[in-house]
Every structure is written in C-alpha cells, then in structure tokens.
Amino acid sequence: MATNKPLERPKSLGQVLTFATAATGAMCQELLAAHDLTLAQWVILSALWRRDGMLVSEIADYTGNNAPAASRIIDRMAERGLVTRVPDGEDKRVVRVHVTEMGLGLKHLEDFHERVNTQLLEGISAEEADTLFRLLRQVDANARRATGSGAEMAGKQLRGQAGEGNE
Amino acid sequence: MATNKPLERPKSLGQVLTFATAATGAMCQELLAAHDLTLAQWVILSALWRRDGMLVSEIADYTGNNAPAASRIIDRMAERGLVTRVPDGEDKRVVRVHVTEMGLGLKHLEDFHERVNTQLLEGISAEEADTLFRLLRQVDANARRATGSGAEMAGKQLRGQAGEGNE
DNA sequence: GGCATAATGTTTACACGGAAATGATTTACA
DNA sequence: TGTAAATCATTTCCGTGTAAACATTATGCC
Q: Any atom of strand D under 7 A from CB of B67?
C-alpha cells in the first residue's frame, strides 16, 4: 500500500546514537532473557560480583542512574532472590546490597559485556574501535557540559578509564 | 566518606553508548523543557511539520518505536493540544495525526536537531564526525543482525540515508 | 548538648520503551 | 461469497529513567 515512501529522517547524531543504543540494548536483553535477567539487573550483579555489599548510592553512581531507579531495580532483584538488603551497623541510613547464592550462580555471565563487545565491533578494526570510544566520550562530555549549567553533574562524568584518564 | 573509591566500570561499548545517549537525551530534554516539550514529542512534531496527517504506524516507523509507544506519546500530545487524531475516511482502521495551530506555533524549533548536532560535535572534525556516524551505523547493524534471528526486523533498519550523505 | 544542615534511601508522580492481547477493519483466496 | 489471514490502532502489563517530596540518620557548628 505504501502510498507514501517513508519520511526521511534528518542526519542527526542523537538519532543515530539512540538507534544504535536501542539495538544494542535489545540484543543484550534478548541474550539475558534466557537467564531471566534484565540488562539493568546484570549491570548491578556484575558490580556486586566484584564488590559485594555496595551501598545503594554507590550502585546508582556505578550504573549512572539516580538513586530511585537503582532502589527499584534492587527491589525486583531482591524479590527474585538475587540479592538481599542488609542495614549497615554503623551508619543507620545506609543499606548494603549483598549477592545471594542464587545471584552467585549466575557469575558465569561475568564476561557477558565482552562477548557483546566483540559482537558489536564485528567488521570494525581495533584502531577504529578506539576512535569510536574516544569520540563517544567526547560527545558525552560535550552533552554534559551543555547541561544543567554544567554544575551539579561534576561527579557523574563518564570516568575516563580510557581517554586520557585524569584520575 | 568515600571509604572505597568508586568501582571501575569495564570498558564496554554498550556502556559508553548508553552514557553518551543518556547525556545527549538529557541535554535535549533540558533545552526543550522551555517549550514544554519532551524529546519524543519534538521528534514526532518535526515529522508532522514536514508531512502532516501521518498514520500512527508511519510515525512509529519514523521514530523507531513500536506502535503502542507512538500511540501513547500521541495521546499526551493530543491532551496538550499539539495534535489531533482524525479517523481516515477510506480505511476505517487508520488514524491520521494532524498538527494543530498550537503545534505549528513551535515550528521555529524545526532546526533543533542541527543545533544539537553542532553542540555535540564540538571539538570533532568533519572527517571524524563522518567516521563516527559510519561506525555507529555499523554497530547498529551488528546489533540488529544478532537479534531476533535477524528475521522480523527486516523493515526497521537504520535507513542508510547516509551511506554517503545523499542529501 | 542542641539545632541547622547534609546525606541516604524510599516513595510518588510522570514520561518512555517493549511484548502480548484485543478489537476493528480490510484483504486474500478458495 | 465467505472465511481465514493480515493490518492498524489501542490497551494492559511490566521494566526503566527523571524529578520532587519525604523520613531517617549523621554531621557540623555554636
């Protein structure tokens, strides 16, 4: 029927970024579905496998979300029995998140992101991949600089454990 | 307090993509908030400014979402008075979305994406920007190829109006 | 010690995205 | 012609993300 040919999309970096990210996310979700895990849950698990007992705020900082989002994902992970919340003895505001046996049972997914990386970078040379990482970090920095008068986000940059890590 | 230094994030393309996209989206949302528009709403408006009366399915295809998502965003846009739903005379299944006067009043935001582009690409040469677009499309294609047995998405690729910018 | 302030986590309200199911309509074809 | 299949839009359910308000607890400063 296609009376009209599809409307052309303007050449927009945001658009290409969004599409690539959505496709990547969909691929990850599909791969993780076999283990009844969402991508957001895997990200948190992969952090806890390396450092058990992280605070909710640390997890939020790690994943790049704000605390409410992290808190809710932890809710679901706790319902599924992947983690438990343990109130801290010293600081009574603090909640430490611990992996359960069941959560440890998925530790074979530790290198999931590496398999995804190779999948995504197929047909792209190592040099080009480096360029891609560098440019994406630059775009990220440009966007953050232009946001919120640049102020309150100071601590939330994409930490440069690649570009020229000034850390 | 930082008893622990923040946990290192692994070098994952998905992670960098997600962060760059989130930062870009946040920047757009902040810029559009002055006009009481969300990014998703602007994307649809920018399509309708060029082709009024698109079908919901065409809009969904244009934005890269599924129909339910598009339908809901159109709901909110209709509530805000930006668009109206008009049942089609010939095909009674179809709903055409039309911009209202109020929606046309925002047409000065037509080139919003171009301003975002320049903002995001600051400090990046034209050649590097081309490389970035090319690599992102490659990553997108790689992800889609690995998803859903590659079948049903046939029509939803990132249309290559950029092979080499034929615009 | 006592009080203002900050930090931590949660809840609520809103916007967005995907999958599946449903209703209505159109098309295909037998 | 008449029924099955395809198409279009919507609804519902779930997961995620942001912002704002809130309760609880720590901290700092007098």
A: yes
pLDDT digits (tens, 9 = 90+) for B92-135: 999 999 999 999 999 999 999 999 999 999 999 999 999 999 99
What pLDDT, on a 0 to 100 scale, did the predictor assign at position A167? 33
Residues A98 and A50 in one domain: yes
For B119, which of A19, A62, A142 is closest by C-beta distance? A142
Helix (H) or strand (E) holding A85: strand A83-87
Measured distance CA(B68)–CA(B97) in Å, rounded: 15
Domain hosting A139: range is: 121-148
What was the pLDDT predicted at A149? 62
Domain-embedded: residue A12: no
CB atoms within 10 A of CB A75: 12
B100 within domain boundaries: yes
Contact list in B for residue A135 (CB cut-off 8 A) is 124, 128, 131-132
Asked if A9 and B161 come within 8 Å (Cβ–Cβ), the reply is yes
Q: Is the CB of B1 under 7 A from strand C?
A: yes
Q: Where are the alpha helices (H) located in chain A, listed in sequence order?
A: 13-33, 39-50, 56-63, 67-79, 101-104, 112-120, 126-145
12-31 of chain A touching strand D, CB 7 A cut-off: none
pTM > 0.90: no
Give the pLDDT confidence score for residue B149 in this predicted structure.
63
Lowest mean pLDDT among A51-60, B9-18, B50-59, B139-148: B139-148
Please indicate if any CB of chain B lies within 8 Å of the CB of A66. no
